[in-house]
Amino acid sequence: MTSEEFKEINLPDSLAYHFRMSIYELRGSLVVLERSVDASNPIFCLWRMEEGVPNSFTKLFTFSRHTLDSIVYSVKGFRKTGELIIEISCSNDDDELDESLAVHELNSNSINNIGVSGKGIPRYVYSYKESLLLL
């Protein structure tokens, strides 16, 4: 995404009529995160637009909202490395649900808690870019 020019982009038919999706920028590419259901199992699918080709989306990966020991509530964003920052809920020692932020590592398909937790606390993730320019 080297241009700041606005263009119309046609989504593939499999995404065109989904209303539960988010659009992000990941490593210079436009990506679409789709929330869907596959055989009654809620899933997330990540699609990437090929560089400079507006109608060429490729599915990068799919993962389930239900993992071995937690439930993925939402995707909050991406790390510079491309790993997903997610909000999860898992049972603690007292059989109560704990909510926290975690990182979903795509290559190993593992989820690692990053230590930001609390019940009923809204969590937001924003990206920033370091700059030497003064506002």
Walkthrough of the structure:
This protein is mainly beta. It has one helix and eight strands; from the N terminus they run H-E-E-E-E-E-E-E-E. Strands 1-2-3-4 form a four-stranded antiparallel β-sheet, with no helix packed on it. It has a four-stranded antiparallel β-sheet with strand order 5-6-7-8, with no helix packed on it. A hairpin with a 2-residue loop joins strand 2 (29-38) and strand 3. The chain is globular and about 50 Å long. The protein starts with 12 loop residues before the first helix and ends in an 18-residue tail after the last strand.
SSE order and pairing:
Layout: H1 13-16, E1 21-26, E2 29-38, E3 41-49, E4 57-64, E5 71-78, E6 84-91, E7 97-105, E8 110-117
Antiparallel strand pairs: 1-2, 2-3, 3-4, 5-6, 6-7, 7-8
Tell me the fraction of residues in β-strands, as a range: over 45%
How is the largest sheet built, in terms of strand order? 1-2-3-4
Average residue-wise pLDDT:
78
The number of helical segments is 1
Helix content: under 10%
Our Rg estimate from Cα atoms comes to 17 Å
Give the uncertain stretches in residue-range form: none
Q: What is the total tally of β strands? A: 8
Q: What structural category do the secondary elements indicate?
A: mainly beta
Shape: globular
**From N to C, what is the helix and strand string?**
HEEEEEEEE
End-to-end gap? 23 Å
Sheet with most strands: 4 strands, antiparallel
